[in-house]
Every structure is written in structure tokens, then in C-alpha cells.
């Protein structure tokens, strides 16, 4: 779960990480009230879960109530990279001498925590990594050992933070690491971490991603959930207990088993299509589960064709086929469906599907043919085209549609 900046700052404050005094506002009047409480000058900040708000005009300094009204009025309702601003964070404005960067994430490949600190803050860290990678000091931390003050101190020196910022920054790093670990986050990032002209270091922005797998031991996270921006497809899938990941393509995918689901996404890509999602219905492909899966995919406006890829193991082919047919009777599907059914009793299953075959329901014996067909059917309605025209012949001697990766 991603937190908004103001929630991230509230989270930081639990570990004594210094942040500016402020409050949230959902209206212009509330913004003025919060500004009076924080003390002028203030900064009016759009609360959206996307970076680069400053550049987009979503962050403005205000010296008095009139300016707060103007900026709050402009920013509320503003569209920042597809995110509409519904809430503001108003905080006392800071004077900035320097802007730095600090974060902790999990480096799964290294099985370690990864700290990154840079004297080049304020800008997007990805561009620093590209243009000036040596400006980012990195430290792998063994989770068993943790991060002590000495290591934090060395890290800020390696990052070349100004000498007067080093004590404050090292102190914040130790607290931020505690927040990361005890707070069960996957990411904590401060950009910018600032040095003020008075020599104080504090967090001017906050990006926190909480580890959903740890939510069972954090009942207090419920307070963050109200405003959570969840993909409506994800929300529906979650409520139905399906393993679903929304993607941006136009071929809806249903498979049984996570491995087959991922392969199905790959094959669709390989033939030039774009998967709209990953969806694993698990072992038993019964009518109930299939209907739920189809319902979730049906809500995705971008889907133009559906590819159901089932390999019967313990579940026999005829049961799968009957499940699909029953599900189709229950859900009014908007897109044509291509089914590849293989495994135990596949022949019997295909015979059942054949009775229902139409230009909206097509059964094909191999993954690649089915992926091609689904992509073609989808391509008729969308820009797909290009890579979607496939050279592969049926039966396996396939030339992957190159180019589109
Ligand atoms: P982002 O653009 O979404 O990352 O939003 P930030 O909260 O990081 O703010 C962007 C930039 O606005 C910062 O890098 C600062 O330069 C500026 N900014 C934010 N808060 C203040 C403030 O209190 N005082 C001043 N002078 N500038 C600020
Ligand atoms: Mn920022």
C-alpha cells in the first residue's frame, strides 16, 4: 500500500523523523485554516500518489491567506499525470540551503536492505542514477545487523553531504531505517531531505510503501485505507479471492496456476499482443471461480478479447469445459473468448466446448495459436496491429514476432 505524502510524514513522525508542521485540507477554506495554524509562509501541496508534483504546478508557496486561497483553488481538482487532486497538505514553509536524497528499499536479489543517499536531491533520483550514478552512495545492510549510527555517518560522508548536515542526516537515517523495519515498509524515501540555513536537517517530502503482507500486525494501518487508490479491477479481484494483477494491455488472461498465468502473459507478448492482466484462478477451474474471473475481466474497458488457458491436472477437462460453459451463461461477456484446454481429458473437454463454438467462443489446441487468435480478435478493435500479425504456424514451429518487447 502506497501512502500519500501527508500520511508518510505522519508515519515518519512516529519514529521522531523531523517534518514540517502542517495539516490536511479538502477545501479552500480548510486550507486557510490549516495555513493559519501552521504559520505563514506556507507551502500548499497536492496530495496525489505520483512524483513530480512540483514541476506539474501542484506545489506552491503562499505568504498570506489570499495566496493560499489562490493556490488551493488552483490545485484542488488539478489533474497531475492522471491523478486528480482531492486533498491538500498545508505546511509551514522551510528555507532551503541544500536538497538531498535518502531512501531504504529491499534488494531482493541481494537478500539485503539497500540504503541510498545522495547530495543531489530534489530532482528525480532516476535521472541522477542515469546521468551521475556516482553521486548516489549505496549501502547494503544485512537485516540481522541493522544500521548503526557509525554506518549511517559513513554513508552520509560517502554521499558527500555538506559537513554541517552530516550529524542531522545520520541521525535521520538511523530513525528512517527503524521506520522502514519496524514499520514494515517496502520503501521509505525522503526527497528532498533538506538542510536549512540554520543548519537543521529535515524531511520535506515523504514516500512510503507499506508491505501489505505485514498488515495483519498493523491494525493501525486501517486509518490509511480510506483514501487508498486501488485499481477497481484489483479491488474486485481481491474481494473475490482471485490472484490478479492489472496490466495495461487488451488481451484479458485467465489461467490456472501462477506459472501458467505468467507463461500465458509471455506468449501473448511473444505473438505481439499486450496482456491486460495476470489472473490465476488456482487449481480448480469450476464454474463459480470461472464466473468470478470473467466478471473481473469484464470490468476492464481495455480488454478486447479474452484468452482462457487451462491445463487440466486433477481437475478433468470435461469439468473445466462445463465450468466455462456454465460461467458464460451467468456473465454477459463483452469480448470474444479464445480457450486453450489441455491436460487430463482434454479431448472430452474440447468436445463440450465444440458444441458451444461460435465466433465469440473459439477453442484452439495450443497456447500459441490461442494467443494469436486472441490477439487478432483484439487487434480488430484497437491499435494493436503491428506486432500482432503473427508468422507462427500452428502446431509448434513458431517464429516469435520479434521487435515488440
Ligand atoms: P514532488 O515534486 O512531488 O517530489 O514534491 P516535493 O514535496 O518534493 O516538492 C518539490 C519541490 O518543491 C522541492 O524539491 C522543493 O524545491 C520545493 N518545496 C517543497 N516544499 C518547500 C518549502 O517548504 N520551501 C521551499 N522553499 N520549497 C519547497
Ligand atoms: Mn519529492
Write structural notes for this entry:
This protein has 405 residues and is an alpha+beta fold. The protein folds into three domains: 72 residues, ATP-grasp fold, A domain (Dna Ligase, domain 1, 2-Layer Sandwich); 127 residues, ATP-grasp fold, B domain (D-amino Acid Aminotransferase, Chain A, domain 1, 2-Layer Sandwich), CATH 3.30.470; 146 residues, Rossmann fold (3-Layer(aba) Sandwich). Helices cover 35% and strands 23% of the residues. It is built from 13 helices and 18 strands. Strand 4 and strand 5 form a beta hairpin. The protein is elongated, with a radius of gyration of 26 Å. The relative contact order is 0.09. Manganese (II) ion (MN) binds next to loops.
Produce the secondary structure layout.
Layout: H1 5-14, E1 22-25, H2 28-38, E2 42-46, E3 59-62, H3 65-75, E4 79-80, E5 83-84, E6 88-92, E7 98-107, E8 112-118, H4 125-131, E9 136-141, H5 149-158, H6 166-182, E10 185-195, E11 201-203, E12 207-210, H7 222-225, H8 232-239, E13 243-246, E14 251-255, H9 258-270, E15 277-280, H10 287-298, E16 305-312, H11 317-330, E17 337-343, H12 346-355, E18 361-363, H13 367-379
The structure holds guanosine-5'-diphosphate (GDP) and manganese (II) ion.
* Major β-sheet annotation: 6 strands, antiparallel
CATH classification, class level of the largest domain: Alpha Beta
Number of strands: 18
Rg (C-alpha, Å): 26 Å
Which percent range describes the beta-strand content? 15-25%
This entry's quaternary arrangement is: single chain
What is the end-to-end distance? Answer: 29 Å
Give the CATH architecture of the largest domain. 3-Layer(aba) Sandwich
**Small ligands present:** guanosine-5'-diphosphate, manganese (II) ion
How many domains make up the coordinates? Answer: 3
By helix and strand content, what is the structural category? alpha+beta
Shape: elongated
Q: How many separate helices? A: 13
Mean pLDDT: 90
